[in-house]
Amino acid sequence: MKRNRPSGSQQRKIKKRKNWRRSLFSSGESDVDEGNASRSLHQQDSDDDDDDDGEEEEETFRLSVYSDVAAWPVPVPDDLRVDLIKRGSEPFQNRDGPFSPVERQGEKSKGKSQQLTTAWFYKALPNGEKILRTWMVYSPLKQSLFCFCCRLFAVDDKVTVASSFVTGFQLWWKLNPKVSDHEDSEQHLTCLEKWKTLRAGLKLQKCLDRVNQTTVDREKRKWRDILHRLLDVTLFLAHQNLPFRGHRETMSSANKGNFELVELLSNYDPILKEHFMRLKHAVASGKRMTSYFSPKIQNKLICLLGNHVKEKIVADIKKAKYFGILFDSTPDVSHTDQMCEVIRYVHIEGDHVEVKESFLGFFPVAEKTAAELTENILQHLEEDGLDISLCRG
Ligand SMILES: [Zn+2]
């Protein structure tokens, strides 16, 4: 789903996040244009759609941050730190490897390579018992060892940079005594305490970060609720075969088309009512705010729901195994031949047996030769995951 773009502190957070991305990927991507209040809400949504590359990059960034310790920004922002502590160090440990060998430098042992082993993730106690070093995390990205808590609370200063467990430790032949040295260092013990305290606080939901977290959760829930209503309206209009758009869809337009049903619902639904009030307020004060009402978003919702329905139908057809096909074309207003794809199959549910004909979609046909038509049909069946050898009749 698309990301939200609320105003104020949220926007500053997004800007901050973009800066981490820039430092990680050196993409040189331009920042969000926070001004230009004269644009309509729908134009703003359209702008978001044009930012697909940015979204993809953000997704890549999110994936790396949540899978590899080396991708964390320094310092780790508060909201991300809370998220990472909630996940715990275990997903970042990679303690079963694979670990990359590193060639040892120096005259004596030149050419000899050494490797980290899983055994280093366990500390042997004097009584012979072995306990897991929860702080130790391995980054496949940087092929180095890091300290989970020291990295979490690292700040961009000289002390931090001096610690190899914050910048990445790779000298495997120095694991002894570097690991135990780090474990006993004052800096590590301070970070360890901070980590444990914050983790305990989050579990008890009593710390300040929890207040922020509750706000984030509330925001998430609000947007999900709004999206739920928009999807319901989309389903209703699609089911009734009604057009979505009017002549003009800006907030000031007198007739925004049938999608205006959302505005009607806002008279009775408190969530939509609040959303509309905020939108109107944002427009009046010249601020940017995501509405989720633009024609592009409407098309995206239709497309997502359409694909979901199609997946269900195809699954049903596959369950029936054998099927028949009906393909027929007719020209549209632009004189392009539109081929319609209908599949006939037997649907069995309990004792109820029914022969169903399901429409899977249209596709334009350029050539009308038998060879071209056959190729088109076979190609579309294959794209839908239907095996032509199971076609009967
Ligand atoms: Zn540490």
From TrEMBL:
InterPro entries: DUF4371, Znf_TTF. It comes from the Eukaryota. Transmembrane segments: none annotated. Residues 12-21 have a biased composition (Basic residues). It holds the Pfam family DUF4371. Residues 123-209 form the TTF-type domain. Residues 1-11 have a biased composition (Polar residues). Residues 1-61, 89-111 are annotated as: Disordered. Residues 46-59 have a biased composition (Acidic residues). This is TTF-type domain-containing protein.
